[in-house]
């Protein structure tokens, strides 16, 4: 997922800044997110066949998922390590795990450079993070080497944009209003791995076997269209990055367009907003 002229180092610098900047929003809204997103964490630990006492790695954990879900299963005799590029997001995951009395080692680190022990983890998980990695083959090789023989790697990515209104509503309206061109297919974004064949290809090239996929519905609900917009403004790093150089007046105008669109297309009779999205879960085994 890299191309000539694309600076992956600068991309990561931007990612770090973006995710750190929305960490306060994630702390505020994480329960709303996890009400919908928990289904993905549950599916990933199921696909990875995680059991009590195992050692588990969570790559790009964000606010601590699916590390928290895995830690509940492996228990005190197991081990969960969770890594992420953003220390501010990790701080939220650390607080969540402490509140639950769970044993999780949170480590700041780049998934493409993280120093991991060889043949150590029984399972590796990644929920909605792989698509942001500019050098995915490098990360997958690191992940595979860190796993024991027979260990499973399970990941979730977003499907194509039209199937993910949670993000696509705002991204598409912002792009249209600012007349941004469509992004290069080789520059990471939330939908970079929506092509199932390409996703499988990366897994196979990294040496994973017995690859299986499953599509999962992920539903988010909000009290109103305005509630959805506030949520998106405060946690959606990719959207905020697109608006970073705009005036407050321009931003307000665009968010008003988003609000009116959601009211017209997704608001129920009771005023609530329900957004059904599709994610792709994939699992492979290290021989």
List its salient traits.
9 helices, single chain, Rossmann fold
Largest sheet, strands/sense/barrel: 7 strands, mixed
- Uncertain runs are none
Helix content range:
40-55%
Shape annotation: globular
N-to-C CA distance: 25 Å
Determine the CATH topology of the domain at 8-159 and 185-221 and 277-285: Rossmann fold
Radius of gyration: 19 Å
CATH C-level category of the domain at 8-159 and 185-221 and 277-285: Alpha Beta
The whole-number mean of residue pLDDT values reads: 95
The proportion of residues in beta strands is 15-25%
Within the largest sheet, what's the order of strands? 3-2-1-4-5-7-6
User: Structural class given helices, strands, pairing?
Assistant: alpha/beta
Number of strands: 7
- N-to-C SSE series? HEHEHEEHEHHEHHHE
The CATH homologous superfamily of the domain at 8-159 and 185-221 and 277-285 is termed Vaccinia Virus protein VP39
Tally of helical runs:
9
The CATH architecture of the domain at 8-159 and 185-221 and 277-285 can be named as: 3-Layer(aba) Sandwich
